[in-house]
Amino acid sequence: MSNIFSNARMIKLLIGKDWQLVKKSLAAYLAGGVLVIGLMGMATPLLFNTGAILMITLMIVIGARSAIELVINEKKDQTLAFVLSLPVTPQDYAWAKLGANLLLYLVPWLLLVLGMLAVIVSSPVYNGVIPLVVLVSVFILLSYCCYLATALLTYSEGYTTAVMIITNLLLNGFIIWLLRMPAIHLTLEAPTASWNSTSLGLLTGGITLIIIVLLGTAALQQRKTSFL
Amino acid sequence: MMTEPKPGRFAYLDNLRAVAMLAGLLFHAALAYSPKAHGFWLSADPAQYPLFDVLAWASHLFRMPLFFFIAGFFTALLWQKAGGVAFAKNRLQRVALPLLLFLPLLTLAMHAVIHVGLSVVEQPSALLQLIKPMLVAGSQTRLPLSTMHLWFLYHLLFLYVLTYCARVLLSDALQKHLLALKSRSLLLLLLCLLLPPLWLVPAPVPAPDWIFPALWALWFYGLFFACGYVVYHHAGALARYDADRRLLLMLGALSYAVFYLLLPADLLAAQPLGWAKLLMTLCEASGALCWTLAALLYAKRYLNRSNKVLRYLSAVSYWVYLVHLPLLFLLQFGLTDLSWPAGVKYLAAVLLTLSGCLLSYHLLVVPTVLGKLFAPNQGRADSPDKPLHKLL
Amino acid sequence: MQSFAFDMRGIDIRYPHFAMENLNLALPQGQVMGLVGVNGAGKSTTIRMLMGLVKPAAGQIEVLGYQMPAQQVQAKYEIGFASDDMRLYKSQTLQWHMDFVHSIYPQFDQAYAKDLLKRFELIGEQKIKGLSHGQRVKASLLLVLARRPKLLILDEPTTGLDPVARDEVISELAEVLRDDARSVLFSSHNTHDIEKLSDQIAFLDRGKLLALQDKETYLDSWSRFRCQLPPGRQADITGAVSIRQQGQLAEIITDQNNHDFPQRLVQAGFTVLEQHRMSLEEIFVANVKRSR
Hints:
The complex is a heterotrimer of chains A (228), B (392) and C (292). Chain A has 228 residues and is mainly alpha-helical. Helix content of chain A is 80%, strand content 0%. Chain A is globular. In chain A, 35% of the residues are buried. The longest helix of chain B has 37 residues. Chain B has one domain. Chain B has 15 helices and no strands. In chain B, helix 2 packs across helix 8 and helix 7 runs antiparallel to helix 8. By secondary structure, chain B is mostly helical. Chain C has two domains: 211 residues, Rossmann fold (3-Layer(aba) Sandwich), CATH 3.40.50; 70 residues, no CATH class. Chain C is elongated. The two termini of chain C are 37 Å apart. In chain C, helix 5 packs parallel to helix 6. In chain C, the strands form three sheets. In chain C, strands 6-7-8-3-9-10 form a six-stranded mixed sheet, sandwiched between helices. A four-stranded antiparallel sheet of chain C has the order 2-1-4-5.
């Protein structure tokens, strides 16, 4: 069984390659992100809300684009054969893809979440919304992991897009479901973040699911016998 | 015979940066005795003198633009000489780390100084009186999070990110296109580009010290940063204004004179509106642009050298700027109730703050690990490639 | 003991519409093997197994002494692979690809790469999306050849090329193949290319190896005869692969063209009018028809 460390040098090179391939899009998103943060920082309610919505949109777009550009297009543009002719096993390749995508997504995701938390803590917004914000962010990350897994396992644009649509629809349902929970909505206007058993349970559940999806993807990838 | 070590090619920028940093101390010290800043300055003193306003706001017009220009210049230099990864590492060490390290320390120090001020000052400033209730235990309102005078480090980090974006996204053709413009047209273009961000904020430009980066500041200072960046790659872009340096100096002075006349007597009071606002913004932009350019051109002529004093100033300036503010406020709180003339208080505050900062530099920085962050060239100060290592 | 560039033994693999049973195929080091077969014959599957990308249900595969697919990483450092359905990154330049490949293979020969760039009339700074199909194939080959791999595996490299580009590619390959230490497996349904380049021919059809032989011996063993038959005789003779009769004239193809086959024809009362050496393409067609 190949593990991440047996061919770390090549995995690093492949991640570096993916970075170079999406460098331009990422630079554009990055500039967009700075603009959006700046808009939110103008501290008027309208600009702040617009900025927040733009930021969530940006997160979803970055996730969708990186999964499509880095995974689906590799198959569609037939560059997969080129990469697999290099000294890597298909498992190494899958690790590299998982690594590249997570790196490229987790960094902006973390920045967004930390940025939002910083805003909440430093502004008159009730700190009670923190559990809600964290749970929704984790849900967005979980959605991303789901369609990344679909892309890696099927290389199918159709299936991946379907999962993207479903998870984005579920996001709305999830937010409404959360808001209806007494344990969540009763504490929204509290001066401090109140983590109770419900919100902590949901958080643990979300993180567990993310780990299961990622490990499951890696495990299924190991069992494949045929590539290309 | 002793010979002066050969100065680095960009010694004047190094020197200019040190001067700009130290001028920051002079500026902050002056605001305590400024009639215009009386309403919002923490250490505002009962003794005031209008000359402080004239000088302080003049320096304020081009000090930070100049600083960002130099930062842009050295960004281009380091990026080209060391590559992107080394650049990122260097900036994390020299900009991000000091920010992370010193922001909490300075915030704590500032709170402590404010507490001292509240307990010792008998004639507290308006701002000090305003924040008094916020510091009472159990108060619902708190002091807003602020990057204080370290906002420039914070914004520099964003400008580095944007530089990366621009390097990836923009082609060199755009640079060449802009440089192909006539000198006057280019200057006019820059002037126009400086107007929108200045229009958005009250005059004189406030410190963008909230924990969010301010778009106007990224735009305004980013333009100077970009100019510095371009000038590194095309030295001629700056040199072609050399013949006009006197004109620039005078145009800057004229702009400042009009700008100053339009400023409200109390900066917290209503700002001019309509055409007056436009004229004020125009003067502010042209003053900043002309004086920044003039400062660069004159420095290149007269300050492009290196000697022990200049090297020392250049080595200590970053540290002095970083830590001066709490000490300055503490000293000025101590001076507030004395019946000395404003000028004497000012000199005392500046000299004592400077001495304190220098003392702390030799006690805390040089012999410790901080030396790596703030004085990486100790012992090899005459190295001609010094700017590569200390590029702030 | 003879050493093999690759050695496949007892390979079984089964897909819904395709099966390969007990395939044995080996290439001695320094030889050029042409793998011939119609589309769907199993050429690409064979090559993917050699690259470790498909694991057979049963059998042993050894490439350059490495077990596949277990040791594919080590093996792939010494294998150069290019195929007709392999594409480079559209948005990047050829130079970017050269740098990327160089970063992986320390043995990448810059000078040789530059030389190939000139010979193939390619421009390093050009983006892949601006290249014609022929230029792309050449670019892929350049990236592979400049690494100087011990084993070169080319899957349909000339498919879709115009005659001029194909000639350039084939000539370059012929040049490269002069290096005796290098082994090559070359698949194509274009038999002309195979005929030009190969030392050995392997015929594959529907997952079965129909023939595996030295090219010259193989070509020599096939022949076509035009014969005149005595009146009323049916053209029937052992050793014939195909017989076409029209009245008293018959066209007989054999794969046993040794000395006594013409003699046998004479003994059977046939008059040999003409004897033709067959092209690989003709042999290929005859062979496939016979096996079906």
